[in-house]
Structure formats: C-alpha cells, structure tokens
Amino acid sequence: MHPLVAVPHTPVHPLPRLASALGLGKDQLWIKREDLTGLAGGGNKARKLELFAEQATSGGYEVLVTGGGPQSNHARITAAAAALLGLECELVLRRPDPRWPDDVHPSGNLLLDRMLGANITWVGALPFGELNQAIEDAAKAHPRKALAIPIGGSSLPGATAYAHVGAQLNEQLDFDLAVVAIGSGGTHAGLAAGLGDHSRVLGINVGAQDGVAEFITDLAADTATALGHDAPAGVVQIDDDHVGEAYGVPTKGCEEALLLAARTEGLLLDPVYTGKAMAGLITLARNGKLAGKRIVFVHTGGLPGLLASRYTQWMGGQL
Ligand SMILES: Cc1ncc(COP(=O)(O)O)c(C=O)c1O
Questions:
Q1: pTM for the full model?
Q2: 72 classed as catalytic
Q3: Which residues, given as ranges, of the chain have pLDDT below 50?
C-alpha cells in the first residue's frame, strides 16, 4: 500500500523563546512535530488512518465512512486517504451552528473535505455515541463494501499508531512529560501504551466526549496487550480545566496560547485542540508545576480548522 504518512520520523526540537516567555529554562520545553506527518495538511490523524487504510485495502473495501464535527481534522484526513487510495469517502458530519452556514460557504476543513471529493451527509448535533452509531449505520447501508472508522480514529488501530510514536519519541528525547490534546482520546492512549507509563503523558481535555479517562485507561491497556506489553503503569493523567464553555469554543487561554506560540516561535496552533493544550501547558508553567522537568509538547496539527470562517472571525476580532 502507498504510505499515507510522508514523514514517519517527525522531528523533535526545543522551543527556547517560548520557554523563556514562560519562565522555563531554554532546554526545558521541546516539541514533537506531529503536525508535519504530511498527507493533506498532516497531523495526528494521518498516522491513525494508515492502519485503517491497510485494513481497507487488505479487506477489499471500496468506501471509507467516518464522521465528526464540521471542522473534523480526522474527516479531512480520511477524505484524503480515500482519494489517495482510489476509494470513495462518506462523511457523516454534525450540522454546524446555523450562525455559520458552513455547508453553503465551506471553509477550513470542510472546504478541504469537499475538494478531496468526499460525500457529506449532515446529521443533527448527535452525542458522541450516537454519531459513532450513525457512522456504522451509514457503512452498513452503503451499496458498496464500506469500512466504518470511528470518530477520531480512536480504536485499536489508531492507538497502536500512537504507541509507535511514543516509542519513537522515547528514542528521540530524554523527557519527563509529554503534553497532548485529548479529543476522542486515542492519541493519548497510544502514547501512554508506547511509553509504558501513564505518569509520562498529560492529556489536556478539550471536551469532545464524556468519560474520556476510563476510555483512555481501557484503550491504553488494550493497545499495550495487542503489542505484547504490560498495561502502562500508574494512573491516566488528564487536565479538565481548559475546556472552557464547550468543545470547539475558544477560550482566553487558547487565544493567548495561539498568539504566544506564533510570536515567540513562529509556531501555528489551532483553536480547538493544540491551542487549548498549549493553554494547559502555559498554566502549569506559570503555577510552577513544571519546575525541574523537561516537557515535550506533542503538536497534533489541525491548522486548517483555524481557517474556518467561524475561527477567522474570532481570531481576526482579537487582532
Ligand atoms: C488537531 C488535533 N489534535 C488532537 C486531536 C485529539 O486526538 P484524539 O482524538 O486522538 O484524542 C485531534 C482529534 O480530532 C485533532 O484533530
């Protein structure tokens, strides 16, 4: 199969100017550039799709079906993977807020989904479990052989991809704590499984689903078992203080994080995931919780989301 991840060995480098701005030592803050994986804008979802794509090609599937919010990065990457593999892509997307009629003037990820040739079915504001069910139903009802991929790609294949990234990161850098955004939880679960230790991963929850701690604990254990390892030691670490009003609604902390990262390091974050994750890291640094530790921020991509009209209006209004 054609590899989906153009840059499997993503770089790790320090962020000395951001570290200084946060009162950390220049060697204390690093970044793992998972935003640079490649495939239609890159990010963590490209890695997750690789294993689903293998499943699709070896199983003779003709259609990839997935879903999420209208600005889902995972949906964009699934559409790109389908295009690259010559498959059809069906996206089941939650109806956007009527104040931003994204379906009339698509922007951000939705624009890219359309450009990549995905068919889109709009559903109401379904909760997580019901949307996953709608994805499965759409796959079953499809006249061609269709593979259902859960929201965010957060089942065993997606987490396994991130267990490999955890092992890769361990070889690249001597660090104490990886900080990562939690959406559906598969990236965090995989990293913890790959590092073998929950105490080395802190997830900043962005509020995409309830019950994420239990989900990550179980998925991390299952992923480790599937790889022939022990379940990660310790207890899953999650910061729930940076969700704000709701999933997808930017916070003041997120705004500050986007501007600080951009203006100290030329680093672009997104308003839904990496911006809130960086806001969590900034709070920890300011509260002295990172003293004496070497931190690696896992940049999971998502930049196309910032260019959705909803978020350009928000950020543009701050400048
Ligand atoms: C840019 C970005 N970062 C982080 C995440 C969170 O990853 P996960 O769903 O594996 O928790 C997502 C998920 O949609 C994402 O799109």
A1: 0.96
A2: yes
A3: none
